[in-house]
Write a structure and sequence with these properties.
The complex is a heterodimer of chains A (117) and B (115).
Chain A (H helix, E strand, L loop, with lengths): L3 E4 L2 E4 L5 E7 L4 E9 L6 E7 L5 E2 L8 E7 L2 E6 L8 E9 L8 E2 L3 E5 L1
Parallel strand pairs in A: 2-11
Antiparallel strand pairs in A: 1-3, 3-8, 4-5, 4-9, 5-6, 7-8, 9-10, 9-11
Chain B lengths: L3 E2 L4 E5 L4 E3 L2 E2 L6 E8 L6 E7 L7 E2 L2 E6 L4 E6 L8 E9 L7 E2 L3 E6 L1
Parallel strand pairs in B: 2-12
Antiparallel strand pairs in B: 1-4, 3-9, 5-6, 5-10, 7-8, 8-9, 10-11, 10-12
The chains are: A mainly beta (117), B mainly beta (115).
Chain lengths: 117, 115
């Protein structure tokens, strides 16, 4: 299957700092990338959907000024958690759909564990 | 209303036995896709199997098969010949027209394979 990478795999930061997480599709072009958040022992919750070259679409309740998403190319999307606070500590997972696929599978990155002190 | 329902928070299976993980879904669309993902303790989401709503045959991928019962709106995952490495969280998900891009995930089932 297609490969999606995320960097970093884990990060610890102080409250008030900003953290950038990168998501790359390594062997395919992703027209759409998704950012999910997963709290311990819970399911994945979609935060936002990003399409290359356009603004991200955020889910209800997700602050777009806090979670900045940039989908700069067909292989790269970034999520920046601005002014992070302890309640932002979570597992962030990106996902990508391959260009040209219809209802096909969606590939996930390995996730980034963010801990805000 | 929940789009995806997984009623089994945890399941146990003996090694080499088969196990069925339940999933029911709710949609008014005719065109939709159903997915199963495995999430081991490392956190990565591993795609297992996909079933399209128009597919007449149940999807199979190696030891995984999807028991698709459209009238009942169920898409149960069957794992045959369970292995210790199958111990993980399993999530059922759906994409339909309403959430044209989004995958709606169920709450997951934790499967433990007993040696």
């Amino acid at each position: 299957g297609a490969v999606v990478s995320q960097h970093p795999s884990w990060v610890i930061c102080k409250s008030g700092t900003s953290v950038k997480i990168e998501c790359r599709s390594l062997d395919f072009q992703a027209t759409t990338m998704f950012w999910y958040r997963q709290f311990p022992k819970q399911s994945l919750m979609l935060m936002a959907t990003s399409n290359e070259g356009s603004k991200a679409t955020y889910e209800q309740g997700v602050e777009k000024d806090k979670f900045l998403i940039n989908h700069a190319s067909l292989t790269l999307s970034t999520l920046t958690v601005t002014s992070a606070h302890p309640e932002d500590s979570s597992f962030y997972i990106c996902s990508a759909r391959e260009f040209g696929r219809a209802l096909g599978e969606q590939f996930f990155g390995p996730g980034t564990r963010l801990t805000v002190l | 209303a929940q789009k995806i329902t997984q009623t089994q928070p945890g399941m146990f299976v003996q090694e080499k036995e088969a196990v069925t993980l339940d999933c029911t879904y709710d949609t008014s669309d005719q065109s939709y896709g159903l997915f199963w993902y495995k999430q081991p303790s490392s956190g990565e989401m591993i795609f297992l199997i996909y079933q399209g709503s128009y597919d007449e045959q149940n999807a199979t991928e190696g030891r995984y098969s999807l028991n698709f019962q459209k009238a009942r709106k169920s898409a149960n995952l069957v794992i045959s010949a369970s292995q210790l490495g199958d111990s993980a969280m399993y999530f059922c998900a759906m994409r339909d027209g309403a959430g044209a891009n989004n995958l709606f995930f169920g709450t997951g089932t934790r499967l433990t394979v007993i040696p």
